[in-house]
Amino acid sequence: AKRDTGTSYRFYNRELHISTGYQLRLETDLRHAIRAQELELYYQPRIDLATGEVRGMECLLRWNHPKRGMIGPDEFIPVAERSGLIVPIGYWVIEQACQRLQESAELGFPGLVLAVNLSFRQFHDPKMTETIFRIIFNANVDTSLLELELTESAMMHDPEYAQRCLRELNQLGVSFALDDFGTGYSSLSNLQHLPISLVKIDKSFIQDLGKSADAEHIIRAIITLAHSLHMSVVAEGVETKEQLEFLQQQHCDEIQGYYFARPMPWNELVQFLTQQSRS
Ligand code: C2E
Ligand code: CA
Ligand code: CA
Ligand code: CA
After folding, report:
1. Which stretches of the chain score pLDDT less than 50?
2. Among 126, 137, 55, 63, which Cα is nearest to 94's?
3. What is the distance in A from the centroid of ligand 3 to the CA of 251?
4. Best residue among 79, 87, 100, 117 to mutate for probing ligand 1, ranked by most atoms within 8 Å of CB
5. Would the CB of 119 count as within 6 Å of ligand 1?
6. What pLDDT was estimated at residue 56?
7. What H or E segment, with its residue span, contains residue 142?
8. Which residue is closest in CA terms to ligand 1's atom 11?
9. Are 46 and 55 in contact (CB under 8 A)?
10. pTM for the whole thing?
């Protein structure tokens, strides 16, 4: 066992992460994180494949933990979700996003879409629509530039509730994207009565391109079906030129991924947008 230190370390590390003690400590720390201003949003641009222009960006949470350093969402979102803390955190994210929408217009980048992730627990908060109404109203932003990303499981848990919430928010101008598409069990036709304007193909399919013929077939099928339902398609996790070219051939609408840009802090994003608009 001594020889295999790489694997055993990883195992040990993973077990440490799911230990109750660790989770409880993380939860206690997370309670203070908003007020202590330890949470920060990073922004990852989304590129229109037809024009090569930035269409918008996705807001991705980071936690600057005073002792543990930068913690990624895969580690603390589950803790936030279980403890219910995701609800206030999620509203903070939407407030920030609305502020950034205003700033980007003032900086001379109007029309950029800002996408925010909503998890299961947030979506099922009984005060969700009224709280989002209030945030949008106070921020006085162009609501058609705010996009909320939801997974199939969040929407399919209670389809009637989902339909009511999406319609109410959609009437305000907010649009919806189906996140991580292809990983769940529902089909797009189950969701076609919902006001969803965009489908995001999960990055696992993009990363399987060139390795499995299935990935190609699945991606092709998703794009064709989404387009026939008048939805746009974003491919996430695009890292290589080959992936980009395949997606272009398949008439995918937008891409998001390290090939083009990583998630970055707001000031870097502003520099990035400035460079893009000059070239
Ligand atoms: P997601 O919504 O599927 O976000 C996309 C994830 O893919 C992000 O991970 C992003 O950094 C990563 N990514 C983007 N391009 C590439 C690429 O080319 N290659 C690879 N390997 N990865 C790429 P991140 O930032 O670690 O976020 C993980 C998940 O945490 C998100 O997955 C989302 O489910 C959740 N999350 C992040 N921010 C929030 C938030 O504000 N609220 C909620 N509820 N969930 C959030
Ligand atoms: Ca997302
Ligand atoms: Ca996703
Ligand atoms: Ca994901």
Report:
1. 1-13, 15-16
2. 137
3. 19
4. 117
5. yes
6. 97
7. none
8. 263
9. yes
10. 0.92
